[in-house]
């Protein structure tokens, strides 16, 4: 990671030209970067998940029509015209991909990780989900079925992970701290809380 990727160099060059021509200011660029770092990210998805764990009415609404359930939050970051939330249970594990490109619910999860855009993940997770999940360190019991959801420009998916064992008495904020980005994509589950 010591050398900049071709994409990073291209982005830098573009930024320099736009600033030079007066079409963009570096302050504006810094604003956008800050917005994505601080306000658009997996903490938004985590709040939704923690609320669903503690508020059965909200959970029903979320699973029925996630787009309207999250409407009042007014998350920015875009990329979620239609959101579908799929629930992990004892019987089913859900995992999300975009086989065509890299569609992803930015407003809830921030920018997608590199592996999500990798052609290997995109093709293999559909054909051999259990092997790919095992490579992420997630060994699923044979009895559990795996459901793979293919995102598109129209529909973005978010996984509602199972609530960690031992977390029953925690507040929504404390629960949100336990929720990881990868669990909301479905490539990991959340470990039990000890103590
Ligand atoms: Fe895509």
Describe how the helices and strands are arranged.
Layout: H1 6-20, H2 26-38, H3 42-54, H4 56-64, H5 66-70, E1 82-87, E2 92-97, H6 106-109, H7 114-117, H8 119-127, H9 129-135, E3 145-150, E4 155-160, H10 172-178, H11 181-185
Parallel strand pairs: 1-4, 2-3
Helix pairs in contact: 3-4, 3-10, 8-9
Question: Would you mind describing this structure in some detail?
Answer:
The structure is a single chain. This protein is of the alpha/beta class. The chain has 2 domains: about 30 residues, no CATH class; about 140 residues, Nitrile hydratase alpha /Thiocyanate hydrolase gamma (Nitrile Hydratase, Chain A), CATH 3.90.330.10. It is about 45% helix and about 10% strand. The protein is built from 11 helices and 4 strands; from the N terminus they run αααααββααααββαα. It has a two-stranded parallel ribbon. The protein is globular, with a radius of gyration of 18 Å. The termini are far apart. The relative contact order is 0.16. The model has no long low-confidence stretch (mean pLDDT about 90). The site of fe (iii) ion (FE) has 6 residues, from loops. The site of fe (iii) ion has 6 residues, from loops.
């Amino acid at each position: 990671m010591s050398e900049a990727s071709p994409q990073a160099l291209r982005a830098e060059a573009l930024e320099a030209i736009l600033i030079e021509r007066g079409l963009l200011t570096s302050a504006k660029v810094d604003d956008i970067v800050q917005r994505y770092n601080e306000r658009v990210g997996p903490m938004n998805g985590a709040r939704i998940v923690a609320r669903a764990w503690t508020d059965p009415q909200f959970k029903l609404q979320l699973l029925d029509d996630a787009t309207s359930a999250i409407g009042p939050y007014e998350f920015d970051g875009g990329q979620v015209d239609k959101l579908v939330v799929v629930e992990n249970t004892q019987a089913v594990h859900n995992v999300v991909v975009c086989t065509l490109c890299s569609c992803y619910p930015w407003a809830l999860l921030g920018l997608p990780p590199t592996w999500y855009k990798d052609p290997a993940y995109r093709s293999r997770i559909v054909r051999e989900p259990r092997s790919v999940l095992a490579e992420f360190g997630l060994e699923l019991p044979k009895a559990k079925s795996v459901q793979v959801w293919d995102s598109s420009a129209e529909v973005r998916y978010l996984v509602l992970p199972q609530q960690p064992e031992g977390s029953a008495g925690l507040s929504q904020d404390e629960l949100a701290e336990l929720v990881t980005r990868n669990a909301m994509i479905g490539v990991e589950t959340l470990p039990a809380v000890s103590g």
